[in-house]
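step=encode ok
step=design start
structure_in=
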């Protein structure tokens, strides 16, 4: 086995990133061709591998899909569709793409379902702590946090899905960092399947979708051990199921030191503060990477006890990794245990 570390997480456009370990075999292929494309987009990296028996897919086709999502949902591009929404007048309807409509509807529904643990209207709070485009290095005052919190909420923006338009009810800054990459992966997967590609692995900034196999063997994906970075604590394979959509929200890699205070990139929308519990990561497997992406963030915000209860109540495949006294403890939800078996 060759252990391939595909990228190092950096704090760029989408800070909700996490290192997954992709285990690739060195054996040969007797059917089709293993195509592999790598590159950078959305402030992170992507890797796409698939078995192709025809020559009707190019790297340019795939990159254009990722670039489209970036142009629609980036907060680092002043010309993006999302930036235009964030700079629009409160109460003004802004026409949007079908992609953005789908992501905003999903985000709004998930915000309500998780009791606000996942809330894309948290952008101003994230920015105030130095994780936004300006990357300022100031600790906001309690008064400032309270002020910014007044804008946050599941109903801070209104969506007309049928007519594809949105308006901000409050002066919110919508941040899709915890959902856009997952949506982009799903979009690429849809494209590959439209070209009759049934065996693929798509990874973008730690969010991942695999389907089928690599002809001679299943795809294998490792969830990283936070105390032994680069080594898997669990390995998931596509032997037991045809496809796997996986995302992880981790705290031990992506943080900043601010005046001696360690600040995680994950924030609790209900408090306006960086989460401070000892969960190292939460991984979620679901039917789509967008859903896994959002739920991993929500469960991480909830913490171990509340998050595990929520996962079990809602039949979510979630794995909670906790570090305590230099020991790694894992807590799988009931549904996640079915994958381990």
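sequence_out=
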């Amino acid at each position: 086995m060759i252990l391939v570390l595909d990228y190092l997480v950096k704090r760029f456009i989408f800070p909700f990133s996490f290192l997954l370990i992709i285990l690739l075999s060195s054996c040969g292929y007797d059917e089709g061709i293993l195509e592999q494309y790598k590159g950078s987009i959305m402030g992170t990296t992507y890797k796409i591998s698939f078995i192709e028996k025809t020559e009707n897919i190019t790297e340019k086709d795939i990159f254009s899909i990722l670039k489209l999502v970036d142009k629609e949902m980036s907060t680092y591009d002043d010309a993006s569709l999302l930036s235009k929404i964030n700079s629009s007048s409160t109460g003004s309807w802004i026409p949007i793409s079908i992609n953005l409509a789908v992501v905003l509807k999903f985000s709004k529904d998930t915000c309500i379902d998780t009791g606000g643990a996942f809330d894309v209207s948290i952008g101003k709070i994230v920015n105030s702590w130095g994780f936004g485009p300006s990357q300022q290095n100031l600790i906001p005052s309690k008064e400032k946090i309270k002020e910014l919190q007044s804008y946050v909420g599941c109903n801070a923006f209104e969506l007309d899905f049928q007519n594809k338009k949105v308006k901000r009810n409050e002066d919110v800054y919508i941040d899709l960092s915890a959902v856009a990459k997952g949506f982009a992966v799903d979009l690429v997967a849809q494209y590959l399947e439209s070209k009759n590609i049934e065996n693929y692995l798509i990874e973008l900034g730690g969010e991942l979708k695999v389907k089928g196999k690599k002809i001679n063997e299943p795809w294998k994906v490792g969830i990283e051990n936070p105390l032994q970075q680069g080594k898997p604590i669990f390995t998931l394979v596509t032997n037991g199921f045809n496809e796997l959509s996986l995302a992880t929200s981790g705290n031990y890699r992506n943080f900043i030191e601010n005046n001696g205070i360690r600040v995680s990139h994950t924030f609790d929308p209900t408090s306006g503060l960086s989460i401070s519990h000892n969960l190292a990561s939460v991984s979620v497997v679901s039917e789509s990477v967008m859903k896994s992406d959002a739920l991993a963030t929500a469960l991480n915000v909830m913490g171990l006890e509340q998050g595990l209860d929520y996962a079990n109540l809602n039949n979510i495949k979630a794995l909670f990794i906790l570090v305590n006294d230099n020991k790694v403890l894992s807590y799988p939800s009931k549904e996640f245990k079915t994958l381990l078996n």
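step=design ok
step=annotate ok -> The longest strand covers residues 228-237.
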